[in-house]
User: Fold this.
Amino acid sequence: MKKYGIAIHGGAGTILKSLLTTEKEFEYKKALEDAIHAGETILNKGGTSLDAVEKAIICLENNPLFNAGKGAVFTNKGKHEMDACIMNGKDLTTGAVTGVSNIKNPISLSRAVMEKTEHVFLSGEGAMDFAKSINSNFENDDYFFVQMRYDQLQKAKETDSIILDHTVDGFENGEKKFGTVGAVALDIHGNLAAGTSTGGMTNKKFGRVGDSPIVGAGTYANNTTCAISCTGNGEFFIRSIVAYDVSCLMEYKGLSLKEACDIVVKDKLVKIGGEGGLVAIDSKGNIELPFNTEGMYRAKKSSTEELFIGIYK
Amino acid sequence: MKKYGIAIHGGAGTILKSLLTTEKEFEYKKALEDAIHAGETILNKGGTSLDAVEKAIICLENNPLFNAGKGAVFTNKGKHEMDACIMNGKDLTTGAVTGVSNIKNPISLSRAVMEKTEHVFLSGEGAMDFAKSINSNFENDDYFFVQMRYDQLQKAKETDSIILDHTVDGFENGEKKFGTVGAVALDIHGNLAAGTSTGGMTNKKFGRVGDSPIVGAGTYANNTTCAISCTGNGEFFIRSIVAYDVSCLMEYKGLSLKEACDIVVKDKLVKIGGEGGLVAIDSKGNIELPFNTEGMYRAKKSSTEELFIGIYK
Assistant:
């Protein structure tokens, strides 16, 4: 049987063991395991990396623990504006959305943009008009109401801060976390895929777009090199075109996936103040989960490797 | 005196000599010359590449001949939704906007995003809220009404086509043109800058975002390599991360600007069906203006080279 593999993340940041209760830690690990399992089941049966990535991200979007889908943070206006992107490494097709509200699974809407339009990237009201035209799954505001996220917004508003990150248990515990979920996979047909989904920043204003829906920045897949999904302070990831940079270092400089990831995440990003990490898989099934923060919710599993779940350094 | 240079474009496409009247050709050449002159005057006096790029693009945005600013095409809903991006090669800072209406000069709004916010990319209503907060120059719908653009929309609606390109004299003459304007420059301080501005596609729906405001796709600048501004069918430019690809081929593979541009525009883009071109300048002042279509409105001038203005192959 040919090799397959999948890796996922649920955000990076100042995630310290001292800040998570045993119960919370268990909840996160269970959520990551369920998402990996959902994706791996597809790959194991000979399904596509695109299906595995979408399915794993749907699991994370449906879980209020993560800042994507149901758990998306509140904007300054008390709304949820979500971004997502998916890319097929086989033919470099891709679809992305930014600033969509009330969409249950933005990752699936991204896939519809890729497969059902001649476009790559749709935004705001227009993207939601498209979602209606294809009968996407909508949910009302109640579905997206998560008390912890609402409390975060109130705290952010009190200090008039635009919060680039979000926390697990509120700000008071000092935890800093970049809320995004993502997945990358290699299927037995040799095809790579990557996807990313996020609720952005608590208290964000001005229709800010982060790196998640930007092809080459937060998300990239190319069968000749690798598939990448990023999480971090998006502005720095956009300026560094992080995902495509890893791919170019492999393709043009002949670096291994590990070498390329280490240069981009632990050297280049650090130099400009970029905090976060990424999950990556190459065309041979090698998996890397680099980050330059205290922690990153992450997991991986392949046809030759046991399940790994990590939270801290 | 140290070297400086500037190059601009006003869109690429099926621009054939047989399709342009002598008078129209003169008008285009005059507009390109005026824009180059405005930018070069700044560089010649020791000004920054960022100022030169912004000024040249403002000239093109204010001219109804080009699909940006005043001449922006109509969306399906009869509105003008514009995108723009600017990048500073000195420190890799950048600013971009998508889906903004009634903004006289989107390139200047992009620059304000770069210089006055902690963000990189703002969209739609949010971006316009930001514009209001900094007293950007707004214009009413009348300012953006150009009869020729309105006629294009009616024709596009009649055939229910989402037009990826726009024409000079309407569709009937068969001309296909990707409407975007852009500029790149090197100043005597050794700093590179790039900018791009567009009105998108006639009859566009769903808040479609093209490559122009995407850092790495339509616009990129890095002092260690080059500055790039693209024009073409944006979806292919996004998938290929065109601008950063040229930069990576130079940085990681050691190619010259010309070699990198030729590979990306005349080989890689052609293979996936990407039509268009770009203007590029490297840190030594070399300028390239490659395109894979019948023509591209373009011009260049440097401290060591005379003015060049081109339209056809």
In short: The two ends of chain A are 33 Å apart (CA to CA).
